Amino acid sequence: MSSLAIRVEKLGKQYRIGTLASQRYQTLRDTLTSVFDRTRRGANGTIWALKDISFEVEQGQVLGIVGRNGAGKSTLLKILSRVTDPTEGYGEIRGRVGSLLEVGTGFHPELTGRENIYLNGAILGMRRSEIQRKFDEIVAFSEVGPFIDTPVKRYSSGMYLRLAFAVAAHLEPEILVVDEVLAVGDAEFQRKCLGKMSDVAQQGRTVLFVSHNMSAILRLTQETLVIEKGRLKMRAPTPQAVDYYLSQGFSQEGQRIWEEDEVPPEAAPFKPIAVRLKDAQGRVSNAVRSTEPFTIEVEYALSSPVTGLRVGLYLMSTRGEFIFTSFDTDDPSRYERYPVRPAGRYVSRCTIPADWLNEGRYAVGINASSFRVRRYFHDEQTLNFTVDATGAPGMQWAEPRLGPLRPRLDWQIEVMD
Q: Where is the ABC transporter domain (predicted)?
């Protein structure tokens, strides 16, 4: 018997783009004209989200998948989960598949949490006795016990996520497919989910894991696929794949400028234009001095007014460990000054003080959201830069300083008789 859990051969997915979907009513003449125009336009009216993807996954293997926003990662998982059909090629799946592609995938909003657990189990092909055996464990993990008989349409997004992940991870499908959903939960729940996924992997089940969190990818997977613009760029041991992805995905010039086709439609009305790192002299650079302040600026446009918008950045190590998060309306007075941002073009700037960061490589990610309302845009792999520690505290000793921070602190030495 073959030991393969998944086999993908020359898989491709094509989508039609254009304005036809926005037209509500058409006359017969309009319809015939549109068909003629589409025929004449041909390939100009389509886009390949995936093209010529081939790979195999052994039973019990945990495979990571990384790539920039819009690379085609989620499309690949939707095809493997039978949510959508491929345009070309095929994929063989051997075993029951449990999918967590987005918050509450497969949940019926009118049903209670209890009913949705049984519904999802039945969709996965589980017997009722199997679901009952796992039911208490699922509820305990999700921490929504007091609301288990409440329709899930009344759940918060966090409660939705907890229950959805608990069902997908506990109903023991042979293959678990997980997209980037852990970013929605709080830090404690993220740790809990990662621990559960580690347990699932150790039980010998096959896992496909998409994430922008390089620490999670390194922790959970042995091999990783790197997808760029719908094509499989690399398959390698995870440390090698992550290093390649980080080196290729980041700007090496101190700035990141988005092309039109790199901005997902769901980001509207927010449109990222550029992120730039500027040294103490105001020059765009990918290297700064630890002893001097530097600036990170986010340039963006709004096609319509946005209420409660906050634009922020993440500072990370190049392996994905978070150092800090900061938003342009963290200050209460600035938050009150910008309750609504009208349509227009903006730049949000953040100054990192001198004598703060240690030497090494760092990464910047950005986020644009309205708190607990909507996340417009999120990119943890925006650009990276180098910090030179020449002249920083302690440089008289030729030894590395541990940690990402190297602050110039005010020490006093008191002689006691």
A: 33-254
Among 14-28, 137-151, 235-249, 331-345, where is mean pLDDT lowest?
A: 14-28
**288 and 140 in a common domain:** no
What is the 8-class DSSP label of residue 81? T
**Distance separating alpha carbons of residues 212 and 66, to the nearest angstrom:** 7
- pLDDT for position 271: 95
78-90 pLDDT, tens digit each: 898 888 889 999 8
Claim to verify: residue 321 and residue 208 sit in the same structural domain: no
Which run of H or E residues covers position 208? strand 206-210
Instruction: Give the domain extent around 359.
Output: 255-388
For residue 364, being part of any structural domain is answered with yes
Contacts of 249 (CB under 8 A, 6+ apart): 68, 381
pLDDT tens readout for residues 383-394: 888 888 888 888
CA neighbor of 357 nearest in space, from 408, 290, 296: 290
- The number of helices, as runs of H, and strands, as runs of E, in the chain is 9, 20
Residue 372: which CATH number? 2.70.50.60
Structural domain contains residue 128: yes
The CATH number assigned to the domain holding 54 equals: 3.40.50.300
Tens of pLDDT along 276-328?
Answer: 999 998 989 888 889 999 999 999 999 999 999 999 999 988 767 889 999 99
Mean of pLDDT over the chain: 83
Tokens of 356: 């703060």
Do residues 241 and 374 share a domain? no
| Token code pair at residue 115 | 């009913």
Exposed, middle or buried: residue 114 (CB in 10 Å: 0-12, 13-18, 19+)?
A: middle
| Tally of domains in the chain | 2
**How far does CA 258 lie from the centroid of its chain?**
17
The string of DSSP codes covering 343-410 is SEEEEEEEEEPSS-BPSEEEEEEEEEEETTTEEEEEEEEEEEEEEE-TT-TTTTS-SPPPSSB-----
Mean pLDDT, rounded, for 359-377: 90
Count the alpha carbons within 13 Å of 160 in the hemisphere toward its beta carbon: 20
Q: Do residue 288 and residue 148 come from a single domain?
A: no
Structure tokens at 142: 């999700």
